[in-house]
Amino acid sequence: MNIDYSEKIPNNVNLVENRTLQRALEHWQPAFLDWWGDMGPEGTKGYDIYLRTAISVDPKGWAHFDYVKMPDYRWGIFLNPAEADRKVNFGAHKGEPAWQEVPGEYRANLRRLIVTQGDTEPASVEQQRHLGLTAPSLYDLRNLFQVNVEEGRHLWAMVYLLHAYFGRDGREEAEALLERRSGDADNPRILGAFNERTPDWLAFFMFTYFTDRDGKYQLCSLAESGFDPLARTTRFMLTEEAHHMFVGESGVGRVIQRTAEVMVQQRIDDPAEVRRHGVIDLPTIQRYLNFHFSVTMDLFGADVSSNAATFYSTGLKGRFEETKADDDHLLTGAAYPVLEVRNGRLATSEAPALNALNERLRDDFIKDAAAGVERWNRILQKQGVAFAFKVPHKAFNRKIGPLSTAKIDPDGNVVSDAEWNANVARWLPSESDRAFVASLMGRVIEPGKFANWIAPPPRGINNQSLDFQYVRFD
Ligand SMILES: [Fe+2]
Ligand SMILES: [Fe+2]
């Protein structure tokens, strides 16, 4: 089903037949555009950007590529097609028909899940808004804007649910989504990682690799929801999310590639010398990795959580690949290992599986994220560089949950405050690391040219060449 772009808000939800909803959204749209103008990518007005726009939900051809003037991007509302006779697949309502309306008793929890997800979308746009000024190439600049407009569309997806299913409080939540600001002391975004700065492109690539991947795991869990409209809208969001993680994985990979090339050509491995050649030394990349990984660990929430148990047993939020799990999909009586600090060291204990669902999702994420780190290591192996990136222990540098009460190093050892302070500059990016990376950032906008600190990608976007004019400036 193709989307009618003559409508004000492109959609495949039959908006034209729901005047009340249409009016609510048409009222919200100018507020969204104001927010985009204030908090969206800086200085882009009038740019012609080669972007993909969702025009259908057909897996074989959902996207259309063309130049779009930045403020004219058509943010639309797309749900995956309904699955005939879909059921609630887990929890107390397992086997009942999936809900097409919000069950009254679960209204507050469902709204909270939608608002928490929705809040991350504009937050990342805010975090990334200055990066266009220092893009290492037109190709990268275009990818940044692609991620930004799609996070904007994800906000639309959540706001659609709030407007369509939650009445007045949904409309109020939709407004509040445009009022919170990433990093704002008085009115911050809901989750910690979305209030951190994304000051440079290495941080951006790490963010899209790790933090957008948290998005994938949250969306996958919501795509299992018994509330069918939420399941269908998050399914389609996952289609777009894949590109965001690609930008992250390939971006970090190209940074590593370039550094390795210089190390081999110059026969050097001392980080200070590597820096003198204008590329990012591998230990600094490891520290960025440690930071973004640990901040993302916290996004999954407390290791043992009664909310997580409630969301699951009431059928609102499932597990990653819920329907593939070979168990009763109730989890009552089952156990799952969680970590705690006991007698000055990390120890495993068994928690009720229902309460440990955040931990389980975190573990699913770690497996996926670690596989990409191994792909980065293969780039080093190919170049013959003797260095291997490591995924830090999941207890490292935590700010949420019982593990946040102790200082834990990247190998999972509980350390004293003195040990932590003496070593933290080896584990996490220091001010001087960040200043060095910042010193490399400079805008490269000649088609086909790339900044010295990053290798070109093997191929362009949508079969275009690397020297394609991905962004046209006025
Ligand atoms: Fe998103
Ligand atoms: Fe994303």
Concise overview:
The protein is about 45% helix and about 10% strand.
Name the descriptors:
8% strand; three-stranded antiparallel β-sheet; 12 helices; binds fe (ii) ion; two-stranded antiparallel sheet; 474 residues; 7 strands; mainly alpha
Name the shape in a single word.
globular
* End-to-end CA span: 35 Å
Q: Tally of extended strands?
A: 7
Strands of the widest sheet, in order across it, are 2-1-7
What small molecules does this complex bind? Answer: fe (ii) ion
SSE topology string: HEEHHHHHHHHEEHEEHHE
How would you classify the helix and strand content by structural class?
mainly alpha
Given the structure, what is the number of helices?
12
Helix content: 40-55%
- Measured by DSSP, the beta-strand proportion falls in 5-15%
Radius of gyration based on Cα positions? 23 Å
* Largest sheet, strands/sense/barrel: 3 strands, antiparallel
Mean pLDDT: 95
Low-confidence stretches: none
Overview of the molecule:
The chain is mainly alpha-helical. The chain has twelve helices and seven strands. The chain has a three-stranded antiparallel β-sheet with strand order 2-1-7. A two-stranded antiparallel ribbon has the order 3-4. It has a two-stranded antiparallel ribbon with strand order 5-6. Helix 1 packs antiparallel against helix 3, helix 2 packs antiparallel against helix 3 and helix 6 runs parallel beside helix 10. The longest helix has 39 residues. The radius of gyration is 23 Å and the shape is globular. The chain starts with 18 loop residues before the first helix and ends with a strand. The structure holds fe (ii) ion (FE2) (2 copies). The site of one fe (ii) ion has 4 residues, from helix 3.
